[in-house]
Design brief:
The chain is α+β, with helices and mostly antiparallel strands. The protein is built from three helices and five strands. The strands form two sheets. It has a three-stranded mixed β-sheet. Helix 2 runs antiparallel to helix 3. The longest helix has 67 residues.
């Protein structure tokens, strides 16, 4: 009888330890999930704040130019034309638009990219950028290379594949080079970092021109 009781106690103790181990494991998993979600929410809020700051900065700069009444600058913007198999620069549609006139090259470049991201206003053009895609900043190096830093939403174009990426890259490249003579070539960054491709198809390791 005592032997049976001991065996039963041993089994119950073993079961209790197993349950305790499972509960501890579940608690650890829950803790990891909670921490991951917390860090994800913090990072997403940070990205939204950065995007809002950059957008507000552009709005403030544009408002200051408007208040100075410095005039308008007519620019040419390039967009993807539906039906074209390979959207190389010469196969993009051209649209004329006005931005605020300024002697600041960076502000001019920022305005141009901002307009490109809006997409074409004509029926011939085709929007390849996500509505959430934002410009973070533009930098101009001494050799005429413009660094265009875009938000991570840029890698999710409205249409997928090589055509979308090529048209997105060339529309920004051509629009900057054709309107700002100081810019000779473009390098693209995403969230301040270099990437091998924009969205998995077209290499952006080398500058575009």
């Amino acid at each position: 009888m005592n032997t049976q009781k001991n065996i039963l106690r041993s089994r119950m103790s073993k079961v209790t330890k197993e349950h305790r181990t499972i509960l501890i494991a579940l608690a650890l998993v829950s803790l990891v999930v909670m921490v991951t979600l917390y860090l994800y929410n913090i990072e997403r809020q940070h990205q939204e704040n950065v995007s809002n700051v950059d957008q507000n900065r552009l709005d403030v700069e544009s408002s200051a130019l408007e208040a100075r009444n410095s005039g308008d600058l007519t620019i040419k913007l390039y967009f993807y034309q539906p039906g074209v198999m390979a959207p190389y620069p010469d196969l993009l549609t051209v649209e004329t638009r006005s931005i605020f006139l300024t002697e600041n090259i960076i502000l001019t470049a920022r305005q141009i990219i901002h307009e490109v991201l809006k997409g074409p206003s004509t029926k011939e053009g085709f929007q390849v950028f996500s509505e959430r895609a934002k410009l973070r900043q533009v930098y101009l190096l001494e050799d005429g290379t413009a660094l265009v830093d875009l938000s991570q939403e840029i890698i999710y174009p409205a249409v997928g594949g090589v055509a979308a990426e090529l048209s997105a890259l060339y529309s920004m490249t051509r629009s900057l080079i054709e309107n700002i003579q100081e810019i000779r070539q473009i390098r693209f960054l995403v969230e301040g970092r270099e990437r091998s491709t924009l969205a998995g198809h077209v290499s952006i390791r080398e500058p575009f021109m």
